[in-house]
Amino acid sequence: MPAALAAAIETRNAQGIAAGIGRLISSGQLPVGTRLPTVRALAQELDVSPTTVSEAWRTLAAVGAIEPRGRNGTFVRQVPTPGAGHRYRRVTEGPGHFALDLSSGTPDPALLPDVGPAIARLDRHHLTSSYLDNPVLPELEEILRDTWPFAPEAITVVDGAMDAIDRIAHAVVRLGDRVVVEHPTFPPVLDLLEQLGAEVIGVDLDDEGISLAGLKAALEQKPTMVFLQPRAQNPTGISMTAKRARAVARALAGTGAVVLEDDHSGDIASGDLVSVGAWLPAQTLHVRSFSKSHGPDLRLAAIGGNAEVIDAVATRRLLGPGWSSRILQSVLVAMLKDTKTIKQVDAARRAYGERRAAFAGALRDHGIETLGTDGINLWVPVDDERSAAIELAAQGIGVAPGTPFSVRPHPDHLRVTVGLITGGIDAIGTVAGQVAAASGPEQTWSTRTR
Ligand SMILES: Cc1ncc(COP(=O)(O)O)c(C=O)c1O
């Protein structure tokens, strides 16, 4: 048995061993209940230290794929069960109660359009009577199709971008599968992929999007899915250029990997919307969220692209909530058609663009260069993210530490949601000065606070 397992393990480190065994479990070659060899026996067979195998066992146990039963041995278990997202918790569980909380990655409530008039216009005919109606309101589907960056095979509507990503990942990714993500990326996505028992391959970004050379190298490992944020990448603010999207599509053509694009900023992003789906419509699932543009509590996002995956998502959903409230879809349709709302969203986009550019400019004046041009966040390099976050917290400013966004060890950063800074250019200059001061060596702070 150890020899048969060893044959399935391509990379002899803890992650590679966990992924190899994960694939055997997913494919049924190691059925539920199978007793695994001892740590020592497998370590000997693989010529690695028992600690490496123990670490792999811990990863597999953490996603629920195997179960240690003391002296009886370790056994293959049922599929992974959902659990807590530890990276996301680290971002959202700051000390709290900041005078200025820039840790959240959320839109400025004052820049969200007023939802009241659209709600006031709802009447009886908006109340759905049938469970069998189309889950997407026809008027909304029409608007989505008109504004989609490619002709999608199918469209559905779900409860926000993260719901879309969760549902698509569950439909596409199996234990041990490889998934390419941008490095750094949005922590809940890393938590989700870990829950699914996927092996994550992080590919660096440059100022045009995901690195092409990095992506090509990653594709040699035959990933099942590639997760991209085409605009206002969280945390860096990088937007993919059309040239890069075309090159990414070329690299992906014929690989069978599904592309999941998360346009989480939607209408508040200032970059042009590009999509790999323009070249690979049948291989792409493009997600557009209305959270940041029209309100996070509308809880609406659309998925358009590959029909097989979208049908699988919609069918599975019939066993749960069934559909996203058509009342809220009607509210969104009214807002998307309303001139005043359109102007409010345009104004929000401009305000975020100005705030971000002003903050990046002020940091540059302090000698700190940042990446990207788009969205509400800045990814700020710092000497030590822990002490920088503590120093800022002491001044009433909340920021997110960079580590939860990172796929692998990465120089220290903070993610600062500069889109939340109101008070104009003076306030931005002041906060940028505080962030710049905190970004430097620790002794600067102790000297200053003395
Ligand atoms: C990259 C990314 N994806 C998804 C989401 C979640 O969006 P939604 O509110 O539509 O679920 C966010 C929210 O900030 C995000 O930054």
Task: Summarize the SSE layout with pairings.
Elements: H1 2-8, H2 14-26, E1 35-36, H3 39-46, H4 50-62, E2 66-68, E3 74-76, H5 86-92, E4 100-101, H6 116-120, H7 138-147, E5 154-158, H8 161-172, E6 178-183, H9 187-195, E7 199-206, E8 209-210, H10 212-219, E9 225-228, H11 242-252, E10 258-263, E11 284-289, H12 291-294, E12 301-305, H13 307-317, H14 326-337, H15 339-365, E13 378-381, H16 385-394, E14 397-398, E15 400-401, E16 413-416, H17 424-439, H18 442-449
Parallel strand pairs: 4-14, 6-7, 6-9, 9-10, 10-11
Antiparallel strand pairs: 1-3, 2-3, 5-12, 7-8, 11-12, 13-16, 15-16
Helix pairs in contact: 1-3, 2-4, 3-4, 5-9, 8-9, 8-13, 10-11, 15-17, 16-17
Question: Explain this structure to me?
Answer:
This protein has helices spanning 2-8, 14-26, 39-46, 50-62, 86-92, 116-120, 138-147, 161-172, 187-195, 212-219, 242-252, 291-294, 307-317, 326-337, 339-365, 385-394, 424-439, 442-449; strands spanning 35-36, 66-68, 74-76, 100-101, 154-158, 178-183, 199-206, 209-210, 225-228, 258-263, 284-289, 301-305, 378-381, 397-398, 400-401, 413-416. With 450 residues, the protein is of the alpha/beta class. It has 3 domains: 2-76, Arc Repressor Mutant, subunit A; 86-110 and 341-449, Aspartate Aminotransferase, domain 1; 114-338, Type I PLP-dependent aspartate aminotransferase-like (Major domain) (Aspartate Aminotransferase, domain 2, 3-Layer(aba) Sandwich), CATH 3.40.640. The strands form 4 sheets. It has an 8-stranded mixed sheet, with helices on both faces. Strands 1-3-2 form a 3-stranded antiparallel sheet. It has a 3-stranded antiparallel sheet with strand order 13-16-15. Strand 7 (199-206) and strand 8 form a beta hairpin. Helix 5 packs antiparallel against helix 9 and helix 10 packs parallel to helix 11 (242-252). Pyridoxal-5'-phosphate binds next to helix 8.
